[in-house]
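Form 12-C: Joint structure prediction
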Amino acid sequence: MYGINHENAQIIFCDLNSAFAMAEQQAHPSLRGRPIGITNRLSRHCCVIAASYEAKALGIKVGTRLDEALALCPDFVMLESDPPKYHHMYKQLARIMKSYSPNIKMKSIDEGIIDFHGTTEIVNNRPLEEIGFEIKQRMKQEVGSWMKVNIGIAPNRFLAKQAASWHKPDGLDRIDHRNLINYYKSIELTDLTGIASHYEARLNAAGIFTPMDFLQASSDTLRRIVFKSVVGDDWYQRLRGYEVDNVTTKLGNVGRQWVLKTPSADDNFILPCFQYLCETTGKKLRYQGVDTRGILVWAHFRTGESWYVRRMFKTTFFTDADIYARALYLFNQRPKHMVIQSMGITCYQLTPSARNQISLLDEVNKDEWLTTAVDEINEQYGTFKIFSANALLGTQIVKQKIPFGGTKYFELLLKQA
Amino acid sequence: MDPTIEIKQRVDVVVVYKKHGDLASLCMPYKMRFRGQEIEFVELGLRHQTVAGKRMIHVFDMSDGVNDYRLEFDAETLTWTLVAMIEGNYVRD
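Section 2 - Result
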């Protein structure tokens, strides 16, 4: 009656439980079963970026500050993040997933999707539950006995992710036309992936308070009243188990931001860090094989106010020196008396690199050759072995964070680790 | 707070290479000599790789049943370094 998709479930969603904390507990047997957290840089005011299940049970979650965590649990252990370790987990998970279907997609460093469409009868002629249990077993055997994976099975990516988070930790669930209604009756609106407080408020305003209300809403209501765009149509399909999320996104911008540990208005402190942000942005650009034409720089001030300026340039550029020169020109337009809390740079209007084309202008060629030579030396001996002298302070202060959202810079991050 | 004790010392290590077995345990340290004591490992927590420039470093997180040790093998210089340890008693107090 709701137009639910009756297709056999052919998507498996794999999600490592509390991935970073579990990786540390796998590596350190003495920390297993204990409340631990991971942070990027250990300090009195640092916060948890990943918490173990034992810590979560005590109320310590992502964003909890170290002093708060210690107040909740005096035995709480906080470790600094170790990107190569997490990358190892990521590679092992991807390797195991790829052995079941060539069509896998890693959604982030701790979760991925196996699409069995077109493979089940030829390669894996067995129930997906059996494959799911096998993946769990293989993670324990081939990576470590402490490894736990949530598995979700469903006809589309959205429901598979919902199924993977149904019974944490170490769950395995299937959601399809047989149990979809009962599942929706058992959860809240914000339990749906993609529905946070902002969307919840929109739905509430349209009289939608539960997932069942959401399911019963017409496509027209969702498109015209709730989301005011085709996003409403996508939600109508998604909730019914039809696939709308199998899309490849295009690289739109590349950038870097940084939150200052101690807010400052001192140019002697801020500019070296800003130059370092520009150089890491340049490395990302060249890693992606693109040039840029647009630059946006921004700052948030201690007062709570924000400032930004953006500009499109006539020609494309990609060298660290070009990016910094243009970004600095924009950054110098900020209100200099204001104390900066966080700042960043974003390059946009990206185009595939034209670096193989030798220029008629020798100066342009020299810039390119110099950049290539520096990149090659850094590749050989480790990132930031050669960098601008002005950025020295920045290389010592600004620390690389773990990218939760995607995996496109993970190889680059590892070189910097 | 953070029980990790940084050590960064070269150590003598005896390694076992297996003919068969899981990928994770085909090669693993068996025991090491550290501060005049022989420490025998009973569990491999995790083995993973990292790089220092283009030098391959194999990281072995080992346990002697009480303490955890992070050993690194530099595949270019063929040296073993005890990078850090976590004393088991610290977290069990």
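Section 3 - Comments
Chain A has three domains: 1-176, 187-248, 253-416. The two ends of chain A are 54 Å apart (CA to CA).
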